[in-house]
Amino acid sequence: MQKIKRRVLFFSVVMLGLFSPAFGEDNPASRLEKIVVAKNRKFLLEQYSLDSADFVSLPYNSFIEGLSVLPVDLQSRSPHNAIQTDFSLRGSNFQDVLILLNGERINDPQTAHFNSDIPFTSADISRLQVLPAASSSMFGPDAIGGAINFVIRKPDEKKYILELSGGQYGTFSQLLSVSDKIRDLGVRLSVENAQSGGFHEDTDYKKFTASLVSSLGLPLGSLDLNIGYQKKDFGAYDFYTPGLGYPSKEWTRTYLLDTGLNLDKEGLVIKPNFIWRRHFDKFALDKNQPISNSHRNDTYTPSIYFQKDILHMGKAGFGLEYGNERITSTSIGRHTREHRSIFIDDTLALAPQIYSDLSFRLDDYAGFNNVYTGAIALRYEINPSNFLHCAVSRNMRVPSFTELYYGYDGVTKGNPDLSAEKSLNYEIGYEMKKEKLFSGLTVFLRREDDFIDWVRTDTSQPWQSQNIPGADVFGIEAKFEWEINRITSVNSNYTYINKSADKAGYLFKYGPNYSRHLWNSEFKFKLPFGFQSVGFTYKQKPGRSGWFLLNVRANFNLNKNMSLFLSGTNLLNVGYQEIEGIPQPGRWIDSGFKLEW
In whole angstroms, how large is the CA radius of gyration of the chain? Predict the structure, then answer.
């Protein structure tokens, strides 16, 4: 521990020394990009985001699928990321990405395979945000690779949305959303139903989502209440046993309540919040057999956050959080764990062109030692169009209930002796921004200690969760945006990852599943009759051949209230597997219409 403390202190001092106050003389933080993120923070490090104008005007099958144009490695087990998707950031394990709703933690404590069970519709989401590791440290455990924040749209207008679509393999979906605002109270009710016969045996699904979003204006701010429910029934062909051919079946239900106050009294921001999430899961490894696993987990998370501009201290924040996680399961047993957290953050102008961003958090998890996480970032404004940044951060993750306690079923086995994962992240980057052009390049290093994976030493053995001594991750992240003219624009991002782990003679189940090369490019066309896009994705994973996907999405406005849309994914009909052993669909065409008034 002392060694880690010395390393963090050393890198912090070095970076402070690299950027002395001798640079520049004018224009303070007013030039910083105004990115409103969770907890009213404004980050110095580059963020990746997608507004609802992009994934609503173009026919994405779900808001999860909208992440496919950002530097997120979506590892899907189902078509269109509609049912179950694992998230990976900067070469992380799927468990090592923190999921946020309006800046509040909603990770599933049983397993991160359920992190995409977010019970809201595309009509409810206003923005998708990707926060790299150093930016996500203040939000607590699980952010080894970073965090993904789903921002709820406030019901601030009277609007009705009806959307119907259908496509290949018996795919149908219907969405109805009704919102209104009367004086200070805004309310939105959304209902969505989707189903498909599946492109392959045992890949059928049914999904139903209902949500209620409300916001009450108060003299000093607002009171928000968001409630969501989602039910999924789906074929789970080899979802957790890739390549073994099990005709599996799974049923899940998700309940979520998120309520909080957003108050601002003379510059003092006060944000008390409470989240309750309940998740049911029943899984049959072989749907032709009567034996199945059933699980129920609950997460309760009250928190409070304060923020204020303080003379000579910048914009300082302070927060407290309590978490209670419970599970009742036929294969995991009954378990409860608590955690208590305290955290601070501060954004400060050190000099006219130099800014710092600091966060520190202490988490006390039952059964684990106290763990601190945090970050320090510096940003230097060379001129109004060119920026340098650097950062160092520490992150951690406690094992999931599945990793700790899953009972032996002949295929997988948990390990109650697991310790927490820990990581140190270092990055340096350059950004260039002009009126219609933006580009950025970031180089990062991450040292992971005691990272967790499912391993075995022989193919005849079951998979068992173990702490692996360490891994080193080197990566490059590049981004390019160009508004070519009033009609055409292009967004492109590329991530390269080289990850080396202390294998200790193990065969890994998930370790090699990150993308060594991940490239996304999307050309957008804003034509008089609607938005169109042509997207390219290239992925290559260690030890496997890469694949190239071509996707086209088109929206045709019939009048100001009605539009038709067409979506074609994997138009080149490429055979590929996000997770080795689990087939993905070939060419898939969907179409439909949307009525909005």
Answer: 23
How open is the CA angle 303-394-146, to the nearest 5 degrees? 70
Tell me if 125 sits within 8 A of 52, measured CB to CB: yes
Cα distance between residue 230 and residue 154, in whole Å: 20
Query: What pLDDT sits at residue 35?
Result: 40
SS (H, E, C) 59-100: CCCCCCHHHHHCCCEEEECCHHHCCCEEEECCCCCHHHEEEE
With H, G, I as helix, E, B as strand and everything else as coil, classify residue 249: strand
Give the Cα separation of 217 and 201 in Å (integer). 50
17-71 pLDDT, tens digit per residue, is: 333 333 333 333 333 333 444 455 555 566 788 887 776 667 777 889 889 889 9
Task: Find the Cα–Cα–Cα–Cα dihedral 51, 53, 59, 62, rounded to 10°.
Answer: 40
**Domains, the chain, ordered by start:** 2-596 (2.40.170.20)
Lowest mean pLDDT segment, chosen from 76-90, 130-144, 357-371: 130-144
Distance CA 543, CA 69 (A): 24
Tokens of 415: 């390990």
What residues have CB less than 8 Å from 541, skipping those under 6 apart? 512, 513, 514, 515, 516, 580
Decide: 587 and 98 in contact? Cβ < 8 Å: no
pLDDT tens for each residue of 483-517 = 999 999 999 999 999 999 887 788 888 777 899 99
The string of pLDDT tens digits covering residues 298-317 is 999 999 999 999 988 889 99
The Cα-based distances of 267 to 4, 28, 35, 44, 362 in angstroms read: 37, 19, 19, 21, 26
CA distances from 143 to 118, 435, 510, 520 (A): 18, 33, 17, 23
CA distance 505 to 496: 26
- Judge whether 190 and 229 are in contact, CB under 8 Å: no
Distance (Å, rounded) from C-alpha 162 to C-alpha 563?
11
Residues 391 and 134 sit within 8 Å (Cβ to Cβ):
yes
pTM, two decimals, is 0.90
Is the pLDDT confidence value at 333 over 80? yes
